[in-house]
Specification:
By secondary structure, this protein is of the alpha/beta class. The protein has 3 domains: about 120 residues, Orthogonal Bundle (Fumarate Reductase Iron-sulfur Protein, Chain B, domain 2); about 160 residues, FAD/NAD(P)-binding domain; about 160 residues, 3-Layer(bba) Sandwich (FAD/NAD(P)-binding domain). It is about 30% helix and about 15% strand. It is built from 19 helices and 16 strands. It has a 5-stranded parallel sheet with strand order 3-2-1-4-16, sandwiched between helices. The protein has a 5-stranded parallel sheet with strand order 6-14-7-8-9. Strands 10, 11, 12 and 13 form a 4-stranded antiparallel sheet that branches. Helix 5 packs across helix 9 and helix 14 crosses helix 15. It is globular, with a radius of gyration of 23 Å. The C terminus is likely disordered.
């Protein structure tokens, strides 16, 4: 908890966004400076709630009331010690996490919840400023070698933990830069890439080795890797996008969202837009929204990122459509606290300019005689519950065309890429196409998996959690026991 009466004395306050006209001219982070004193007041709002349901919401099992109190007291060293005991990368989660912990905050029952995500970011940035973030170099090495395949948040978390346990860790990444989704999926205005690079320097100093342009199963034989290492951890993510196989899909102007977003991340980093994350040339050349009517298909975070990027390109207009109905502004009675609130969310990108439409079924892409996209034919639908299951029906005489020259498919991902390493190692898949494991271990005892590759498409915070838990499973496999932290043990267990 923070100050006993803090929740009565202070209101929820967050850093303000920079003016839209200013921020649309660059790819820098969105926020203006926020003083330590203001952050301490936010920590003071954490009340003695008896049962801290923020633990229920946090996939990492962060010890939230304790680090809130440390911030309120101005003890930044204690705050980072508490936070880093459960979270390897608070600089990531403090910027891009949707904060399920805040949705479960007890104060949030009838007041604005504690600003946990902002406090988390403030702790780690203060820790870097004061020199509290230092490489953890094991005093002894076990002699065991572990390969991490994939350098997204799950892979990096697994690498950090396994190095902490004293193993020799090598991270392999098929792209030209480390970071996975963090590097080439999330726009810089949400996560500037110096944040990743700063952490990577710490990890390199800890003894972790990183290898780029290493596509295991393609340009490096997976069976040879299996023979060279004592354990392999597959953390390649969920990378096969959900497509929209309707008439006109082949038209020039219809592209996967990640192709569009990753290209812009490369431009910001001054990297030539030539090859994608697999090392293959971009199939559709250089993509730009400048001067175009842009249609974003999909209402999630990726869609929002496409909106923000399109506006920064100088799009003529941006429209975002969603198959599902418009969410309510507040919780429905069947969606009570502390469950995740299924409510209407407006991102910073939405505030910069977009027309949002819901309950639209895509029927066909429309093009001209040159094979260029000119619009999308849609029809309005009505959602109904039949036998407890949601179903939709098309509304008569509602079919119409949304003009667009660029359509971005932002409908999520299906499963990991099955070619390459999964084929060579004959990795078994579950019914959803993800890697099948028992306690993060595949049927091949030497091979483990974590993150979206195992769990399915999810949050960065869940990926970090997966990487940490998989690392512990690997450590037990190699050594018979483990001293690494586990969130399912102890008084602060999260289930």
């Amino acid at each position: 908890m923070g100050k006993p009466t803090g929740f009565k004395e202070f209101t929820r306050e967050l850093p303000a966004y920079r003016d839209p006209k200013q921020r649309l001219g660059d790819y820098k982070e969105l926020y203006v400076e926020f003083s330590d004193e203001k952050t301490q007041k936010q920590g003071a709002r954490c009340m003695d709630c008896g049962v801290p349901f923020c633990h229920f919401g946090c996939p990492l099992g962060n010890i939230i009331p304790e680090f809130n109190d440390a911030v309120y007291q101005g003890d930044w060293k204690l705050a980072i010690d508490i936070l880093s005991s459960t979270n390897n990368f608070p600089e990531f989660t403090g910027r891009i996490c949707p904060a399920p912990c805040e949705a479960s905050c007890v104060l949030g029952i009838n007041q604005p919840p504690v600003a946990i995500e902002h406090i988390e970011k403030s702790i780690i940035e203060k820790a870097y400023e004061l020199g509290y973030v230092k490489p953890f170099i094991p005093k002894e090495r076990t002699g065991k070698k572990v390969a991490i395949i994939g350098s997204g948040p799950a892979g990096l978390a697994a690498a950090a933990q396994l190095n902490k346990a004293g193993h020799f860790v090598t991270v392999y990444e098929r792209a030209d830069q480390i970071g996975g989704l963090l590097r080439y999926g999330i726009p810089d205005f949400k996560l500037e890439k110096w944040v990743i690079d700063r952490r990577l320097e710490v990890m390199k100093s800890e003894g972790i080795e990183f290898k780029l342009n290493s596509n295991i199963g393609v340009n490096i034989d997976a069976k040879e890797m299996e023979a060279q290492f004592d354990a392999l951890v597959l953390t390649g993510g969920s990378t096969v996008p959900r497509d929209l196989p309707i008439t006109g899909r082949e038209l020039k102007g219809v592209f996967p969202a990640m192709e569009f977003l990753s290209q812009q991340n490369k431009r910001v980093a001054d990297i030539k837009v030539e090859v994608d994350h697999t090392g293959k040339p971009y199939q559709n050349g250089s993509l730009s929204a400048k001067g175009k009517n842009v249609l974003v298909i999909g209402g999630g975070d990726t869609g929002s990122d496409c909106v923000g990027t399109s506006n920064r390109h100088g799009a003529k207009s941006v429209t975002q459509i969603e198959l599902l109905g418009k969410p309510p502004v507040g919780r429905d009675e069947n969606n009570p606290w502390p469950l995740w609130p299924m409510i209407l969310r407006t991102s910073s990108s939405h505030e910069e300019g977009v027309e949002r439409q819901w309950s639209l079924l895509s029927k066909a892409f429309i093009g001209n005689e040159k094979g260029e996209l000119t619009g999308l034919k849609v029809v309005e639908i009505e959602w109904k519950t039949v036998d407890g299951k949601p179903q939709f029906v098309e509304m008569p005489e509602t079919e119409h065309i949304i003009p667009c020259e660029l359509a971005l498919l932002a409908m999520g991902f299906l499963f990991p890429d099955k070619t390459g390493i999964m084929d060579q190692l004959k990795i078994e898949q579950d019914e959803r196409g993800n890697i099948k494991t028992t306690n993060y271990q595949t049927a091949n005892a030497k091979v483990f998996s974590a993150g979206d590759m195992r769990r399915g498409q999810s949050l960065v915070v869940w990926a970090i959690s997966e990487g940490r838990e998989a690392a512990r499973a690997v450590d037990i496999y190699l050594m018979g026991t483990s001293n690494l932290e586990a969130k399912d043990e102890g008084i602060l267990a999260v289930h």
